[in-house]
C-alpha cells in the first residue's frame, strides 16, 4: 500500500480524511482492518510498501487507474490492485479521477487461503491487478463498485468472506511468532525468534514460506524498516545513526542500504523529495 498510509496505520493517526473500520467478528480472523484515505489532490504519486500484511487497494471508481512503475518497467492497473511480499522501489501514479482509496489489510496467510493462492504468488510481482485474482474466485468487481458507501463496501467484502472462506489453517505457533516479531517491531533476529518459539529453524522457515510467503529474515526486515521509516519521517532533527540503532540496525550503513533498496533513494534524497 502507499507507504505514508501505512505510516499512519502504524501510528494510529486517524481523522476524517483517513480512518479505520473494524472487521466484524466473523471476519476478524481474515482481515486486520478496513482503511479509507482521502488522496492529497496535489500529490499524484505514491511509494508502495508492504509490511507482510497482504492488501487489496480499491480506487474510487471502477474506471480509475494507476500506472505502476518498478525496475522491470511500467504497467497500468484499473480499479484495484493486490500487493504482498517485499515491494522494492515501486511507485504508483494516479489518474485524475481517484480522490479516495479503500484498503483491505489481511492477516498473513488468510489472504492466500481466501483466494486459493500459493503464498509465493507475489514473489516476482508484488503489485498486481486484482482483476486476475477476482476472475478466478468469483469476486465480482463490478458488483463491488455498485456499493456506494464505505459501510456497503465493507459488508460486501465480509459477505464474500462468509460465503467463500472455510477456515484459518495458520498454525498457532506461527501466530505466536508473528505477534512476537510485531511486539519487537523488527528489533530481533531469527535466532531470537527461534529461541522464543522453541522450534528449530527449518520448521520456522517452512511455516513462513507456506503461510506468509516470506523467509523469517525477510519478514523481520520489513518490520524493522517500516518502524525506522516512521521514526525518520517524523523526526525534526534527522539523525540517521540514532534512527538506525534504535530500530535494530547495526549501524546507519545497514539502514541506508535497506532504505535505498525499498525506496530507490537515500534517506536525505527521499526527505528532500517529499517537501
Automatic annotation (TrEMBL):
<keyword id="KW-0804">Transcription</keyword>
<keyword id="KW-0238">DNA-binding</keyword>
<keyword id="KW-0805">Transcription regulation</keyword>
<feature type="domain" description="HTH araC/xylS-type">
    <location>
        <begin position="175"/>
        <end position="273"/>
    </location>
</feature>
<dbReference type="GO" id="GO:0003700">
    <property type="term" value="F:DNA-binding transcription factor activity"/>
</dbReference>
<dbReference type="InterPro" id="IPR009057">
    <property type="entry name" value="Homeodomain-like_sf"/>
</dbReference>
<dbReference type="GO" id="GO:0043565">
    <property type="term" value="F:sequence-specific DNA binding"/>
</dbReference>
<dbReference type="InterPro" id="IPR018060">
    <property type="entry name" value="HTH_AraC"/>
</dbReference>
<protein>
    <submittedName>
        <fullName>AraC-like DNA-binding protein</fullName>
    </submittedName>
</protein>
<dbReference type="Pfam" id="PF12833">
    <property type="entry name" value="HTH_18"/>
</dbReference>
<dbReference type="InterPro" id="IPR046532">
    <property type="entry name" value="DUF6597"/>
</dbReference>
<dbReference type="Pfam" id="PF20240">
    <property type="entry name" value="DUF6597"/>
</dbReference>
Amino acid at each position: 500500500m502507499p507507504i505514508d498510509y501505512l505510516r499512519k496505520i502504524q501510528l494510529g493517526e486517524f481523522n476524517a480524511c483517513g480512518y479505520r473500520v473494524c472487521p466484524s467478528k466473523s471476519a476478524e480472523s481474515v482481515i486486520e482492518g478496513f482503511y479509507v484515505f482521502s488522496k492529497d489532490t496535489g500529490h499524484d504519486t505514491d511509494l508502495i510498501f508492504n509490511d507482510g500484511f497482504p492488501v487489496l487497494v480499491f480506487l474510487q471508481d471502477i474506471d480509475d487507474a494507476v500506472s505502476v512503475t518498478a525496475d522491470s518497467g511500467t504497467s497500468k492497473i484499473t480499479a484495484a490492485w493486490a500487493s504482498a511480499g517485499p515491494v522494492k522501489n515501486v511507485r504508483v501514479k494516479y489518474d485524475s479521477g481517484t480522490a479516495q482509496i479503500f484498503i483491505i489489510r489481511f492477516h498473513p496467510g488468510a489472504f492466500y487461503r481466501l483466494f486459493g493462492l500459493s503464498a509465493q504468488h507475489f514473489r516476482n510481482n508484488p503489485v498486481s491487478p486484482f482483476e486476475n485474482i477476482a476472475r478466478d474466485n468469483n469476486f465480482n468487481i463490478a458488483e463491488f463498485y455498485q456499493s456506494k458507501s464505505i459501510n456497503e463496501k465493507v459488508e460486501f467484502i465480509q459477505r464474500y468472506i462468509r460465503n467463500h472462506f472455510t477456515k484459518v489453517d495458520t498454525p498457532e505457533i506461527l501466530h505466536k511468532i508473528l505477534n512476537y516479531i510485531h511486539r519487537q517491531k523488527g528489533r530481533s533476529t531469527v535466532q531470537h525468534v527461534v529461541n522464543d518459539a522453541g522450534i528449530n529453524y527449518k520448521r520456522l522457515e517452512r511455516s513462513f514460506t507456506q503461510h506468509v510467503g516470506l523467509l523469517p529474515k525477510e519478514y523481520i526486515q520489513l518490520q524493522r524498516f517500516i518502524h525506522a521509516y516512521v521514526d525518520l519521517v517524523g523526526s525534526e532533527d534527522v539523525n540517521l545513526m540514532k534512527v538506525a540503532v534504535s530500530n535494530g540496525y547495526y549501524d546507519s550503513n545497514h539502514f541506508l542500504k535497506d532504505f535505498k533498496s525499498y525506496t530507490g533513494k537515500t534517506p536525505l534524497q527521499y526527505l528532500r523529495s517529499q517537501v
